[in-house]
Amino acid sequence: PNCNIVELCNRLGVSRSFLYSLFRENTNISPQKYLMQLRMEAAKKELQNTTSNLKEIAHKVGYGDEFTFSKAFKRYSGVSPNVFRRN
User: How confident is the model at residue 1 (pLDDT cuts 50, 70, 90)?
Assistant: First the structure.
């Protein structure tokens, strides 16, 4: 999950526009949304199965800081990472 679209295009040897059209045709979502879903699902596993703090989890799943990660996580799951971990 710790990857961005440019890195993904470089690894696959394709252009950004080709990657987007390929994703849209096959998944109906953008590559960015797919990567975000991967990051959030990885974060959920970390929250459930480890005692790592939010800063560690944020960095592990590709976010620069826990504040940005927490906002993205809440947008994705409807609850904050701390609430998710408690439940």
Answer: low
3 state DSSP class of 21: helix
Query: Where would I find the beta strands (DSSP E) of 19-71?
Result: none
What's the pTM value of the predicted model, to 2 decimals? 0.83
Count CB-CB contacts under 10 A for residue 56: 13
The tens digit of pLDDT for each residue in 11-32 reads 899 999 999 999 889 999 988 8
Residue 58 tokens read as 């944020």
Nearest residue to 73 (alpha-carbon basis) of 50, 46, 11:
46
Please name each of the domains of the chain with its CATH number: 5-86 (1.10.10.60)
- Read off the tokens for 15: 């252009």
